[in-house]
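does this look right to u?? flavin-adenine dinucleotide version
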Amino acid sequence: MQFEWTAEQDEFRRKIRDFLHANLPQDWEAFSEHGPASPALTAFAREFCVKLAEAGILFPHWPVEMGGEGLGPWEQQILAEEMWIAGEPRGGQYMNVNWIGPTLQKYGTEDQKRRYLEPITRGQSLWCQGFSEPDAGSDLASLRTRARLVDGNYVIDGQKIWTSYAGLADTCFLLTRTSDDRKKGITIILVPMDTPGITVRQIPSLIGEGDIHEVFFDEVTVPESARFGEEGQAWEIVAYSLRNERLGIPRFTLARAALDRAVQMLGEQGRFSREYVRIEAARCAALCEAAATTNYAVVQRRADGRTIGAESSSARYATVMAERVVCEFVVEFLPEVLAGASPYLKMHHQRGIVAGIAAGSAEIQLNIIASEVLELPREPR
Amino acid sequence: MQLTLSEDQTQVLDSIDSLARPYAAVPLHDASFVLESAELDASLVENGFLDVLAVDELGPVTAALVVEKLARLPFAVEAAVSALVRPLIDLELPRPICLVEESRPGAPVRFLRPGATVVVVGSSGVSSFTAVQDKIAPASHDTPYAYPVAFLAGLPDTPTRHEVDPAEVLRAWRVAVATEAAGLLGAALASTVSHVSERRQFGRPLATFQALRHRLAEDQVVTNSVYWLALRAAASGTAADAALALLHAQEATKRVCYDYHQFLGGMGMTLEHPLHLWTYRLKLLSAELGGRADQGLAAAEALWGK
Ligand SMILES: Cc1cc2nc3c(=O)[nH]c(=O)nc-3n(C[C@H](O)[C@H](O)[C@H](O)COP(=O)(O)OP(=O)(O)OC[C@H]3O[C@@H](n4cnc5c(N)ncnc54)[C@H](O)[C@@H]3O)c2cc1C
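got this back:
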């Protein structure tokens, strides 16, 4: 075992840091207070991702045949860490390179690949993920948004909720119901967001402007060729893409960076000499590093080409624990940061409080760990 | 020991209930970061509800009961300090009253606005002044704390000094915050209980999942005991009870705020659901007076000496 990064990996990280240093504006920290899905950050990301593409660090982890450099999962991890610590200047485009692109490559038709991959590689597209519905959150398989095949078109009716980026996205990766079979009746359709019949309403939230939305589909009609994969194949494809997404956001790095920033602020105020503040900070650091190593163990599986199962739930939950204590530490000792004293720590708070909810709740991860890691007998139904 | 409400207390709480009825619920779509009501505040003052501490047959426990009850409202009311701390300093101090720790002038100050009375408490004593516009720095517009908050941009050179023991003000301050937290905890619990009872996933109410039931039940236990500790602290007037009450409230805040936002899922992130009004007030109160550790040190000192 070996816990150091290789010289090449260090070099790769340095390259990204240098790039960020050179390309983020002076007032970036205040600017990044705009949520990742805000109009301001989305517009910024459209320019920033072009520069990333030019510098070869938009999708270096993609295989060569997709135009990437085939750098492995560790480099993808490093890239994600640096972007996330910096306040995710790619905005919603992080999803493109983490899982939408690879999923398109694996399951898309030639036509879909042609249509959607190229704008991703140019840093010009924004997707949203239409999974959750008012009555289908943790129980995603109970979703009801219907797609009926009528004369070679799918006609879609229903509603999604909590959809990040929906306000500005060009395309929705939409889960629809095409038959009554709970999981095998779900089908993915790639729906251009300017299709008539789509209404988007922003939901005012604790986590920044423009982040979460309701999306209504009223007889939205798209050609059959917009179907992604086969009818009923959604569950398999989503399992594949969510595994990528879950690893895709290295929240623990931002939690750690936020902790370091909080400690620095406390030091400047002459308040970091108190023993209990130091002990609390150290507890936070331990949970951040616990999350880091647990996540790295999963990256290792990926690097080895092994399948990833419930380990990703352990990594997620360890991350939730870290995010929780850091958010609490900051609010308890530096409440002023949420009232304007540190845009960076506020940005962290807004990202941190959703760690246990977005992309599958913490409790659901625990259920998975209990059944699949511990192999506990299940509760009688 | 006699832990039931007296007739007077029942009457006071009933009248607050009827007075506050129009403010008890917020229509789902009206919620924003801060909710306040000048009318509600005015009618509380008019009816003397913030002055019950000094009334012989009512006293500090009744004052605490009033504060606890008002804290359950989705509307933020500056009641705790006025009802439980002001009588020690000067009954005539103009409201709202903002307490500031001498050692932490950079902390966000609740209810700070022009005309508010700022009371600075520290080892050097207790002093106050009236806040003026150019000495107030606004908080960012999307501050989530659900109280009106602002920062002090400077302190006047010659504040009014008050002949009162700062330790006594600190004690009452702890009781005030613990009591307010008790009400907030109660309201947040009620809101969460109704959500998990109504919302169904996997064909059953969320509340039927054992994983949630035990956590919620524990949340109930700490919420209930914060209520009792806060009232006892109001009654006894001891430094130890005050510090323990606030310590317990701040400890409780940590677990329940996490739990409740988990249990609400995405719904807990929206401003359209009122949960944040209670949890984010609690979060700000969890930082008050140095947070748990400082309450712990104060309690230990009061119980066992230095
Ligand atoms: C910031 C943010 C961004 C999001 N972005 C998107 C997006 O882009 N696209 C999208 O489709 N969705 C998105 N979501 C939705 C997210 O996936 C859901 O919020 C999440 O799956 C939880 O569903 P829910 O909110 O309906 O909570 P619920 O399913 O109602 O869960 C509420 C609580 O009950 C618990 N619970 C539920 N079932 C069980 C069980 N069987 N055992 C124990 N506990 C249980 C949960 O753990 C949780 O604590 C986003 C959410 C957030 C907060």
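Chain A has a mean pLDDT of 94. idk if thats expected tbh
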